[in-house]
Amino acid sequence: MVTMNLPTTPYSRYEEGLPQEGNWILGHRTGSSIFVYQAFNDRIADHAVQHQRFGGPHYSFSRMTWIKPNFLWMMYRCGWGAKDANQTRVLAIEMTFSGFEELLAQGVSTVPHPFHGDEAQWRQQLDRSDVRLQWDPDHDFSGAKLQRRAIQIGIKNKALEEFNERHIQSIQDITDFVKEQKKIIDAEGNSFLVVQERIIEVNNALRERFGIPG
Question: What string of DSSP letters covers 141-206?
Answer without folding.
Answer: TT--EEEEEEEEEEE-HHHHHHIIIIIEEEEEE-HHHHHHHHHHHHTT-S--EEE--EE----HHH
